[in-house]
Amino acid sequence: MEEQRRRHVKPLCVSPRRAGAELARIRADTLVGMGFSHLVALFIVVATAATLHAHGITRIDSAAEAAEALRPIAGDLAFALFALGMIGTGMLAVPILAGSAAYALSETFGWTEGLDRAPREAKAFYGAIAAAILAGVAMNALAVDPMRALYWAAVVNGLLAPPLMVVTMLIARNPQAMGGMPISRPLAFGGWLSTAVMSVVAALFLLS
After folding, report:
1. Domain range spanning residue 69?
2. What's this model's pTM, rounded to 2 decimal places?
């Protein structure tokens, strides 16, 4: 919606002739973004295995412990690099996570939203961003275990994924909901297959 306002383009269901170019741009953006994120994740796994796990360190309860464990193994330079990485990750993640929470609340309650709007135009939206950041800061004061919090957040996301994927697929195949542009059958097959896999994984987690 923000792109439509910023670029002054009509929805694809209104101007389907633009769909080819727009979907190609979205596809390229998704492939590049997912490719880099998976590559980074792979390097994290390999680097952790080659340093911490190789020296018998298999339990880390905080980012500070990980940094301290790296100092004797890989030297001060690795320690400094890890610290810079944590700072960079925080600067990248905090606005994204706080922003996504603000968007979710705004869409739920019908607030005016958008980072392209001035704060006076979307007071509740920006207030939600500030509240989310303050809640994150408060977790430090409350001595919440960040690793366990991350673990259980991942568990909740994983268990919520199957029903959300089912709803998404039902909407994506509904011509009325999609403005006459539902997803193709091959894409729907891949979507339902992914949904089934996620459902099996969630069930196996609960059974274990």
Report:
1. 61-143
2. 0.61
